Amino acid sequence: MDYNTIRGMFTLLIFAVFIVIVIWSYSKKRQSSFDDIANSILDDDLKTVHSLQERTKQSKQETNNNV
Is the pTM of the predicted complex or chain greater than 0.70? Predict the structure, then answer.
């Protein structure tokens, strides 16, 4: 085997791995899992917004109590 044959086989191997990853990522079984992961970012943002709103309410109440 010469160097070009090895390079060709390696290229085919990498291409096959790429095709397997694409098929795996677009399969119907994985869709709900990927959707949950994608929406988790938004869930974290909503939690952050709600916690900031609660802190603001608490600080306003403390300010009103001090007056």
Answer: no
